[in-house]
Amino acid sequence: MKEEENKSRQIEWNAKRFLSKNNYLIQTDAVKNYLLPKMNYRKNLQWLTYAEEADILNVALFGFTAKAWREANPELAKKNNVRDFATINELTVLSNLESHNAQMIKEGKGKEERFKSLQEIAEYQLNVLNTAEQIKRIEICSNDLTASGALCVEESLRE
Questions:
Q1: Global pTM?
Q2: pLDDT tens digit string along 106-151?
């Protein structure tokens, strides 16, 4: 039963990762159409704008840039990036942030204003999703009337 639950969570995680990758396309399109035309980057340096926008999201959600994560996790960074280790809830919020950021870019909002807004959105949405997940775990545990169910409820309350 536990194996089936883990398999289900992996499928859900993969779906969320897929969504965040797709929404990243929405953000990169906004960068290409609304930010790059205003900048004087040579063609070979335009990637900097994309990286800056990705890091705005990383810092708003995770609290650090991709480079900082790579430096702190050199072995993991050889084959992965920070988003590969995000929780399902973080991937959900990331997907939402990408859409919000793309819209704010289209509206011409500045980087600082967008970052502040994205940080507030990330904090709010993560709190809502994490609280709902904790309540769900408590409900599942409380349905188990055995002694292990009581321990499960205690552990859920501590998280």
A1: 0.75
A2: 999 999 999 999 999 999 999 999 998 887 777 777 666 554 555 5
Q: What single DSSP character describes residue 35?
A: I
Structure token digits, residue 31: 């960068």
Task: List CB contacts of 130: < 8 A, sequence separation 6 or more.
Answer: 89
Cβ atoms 58, 84 nearer than 8 A: no
Longest dimension (CA), the chain: 66
Is residue 16 packed enough to be buried (19+ CB in 10 Å), middle (13-18) or exposed (0-12)? buried
Count other C-beta atoms under 10 Å from residue 120's C-beta. 11
SS3 40: coil
Using a 10 angstrom Cβ sphere, with 0-12 exposed, 13-18 middle and 19 or more buried, the burial of residue 138 is: middle
Check: CB of residue 10 under 8 Å from CB of residue 2.
Answer: no
What's the rounded Cα separation, in Å, for the pair 38 and 40?
Answer: 7
Q: At what angle do helices 111-143 and 147-158 cross, to 10 degrees?
A: 160
Q: Taking a C-beta distance cutoff of 8 angstroms, is the pair 82, 69 a contact?
A: yes
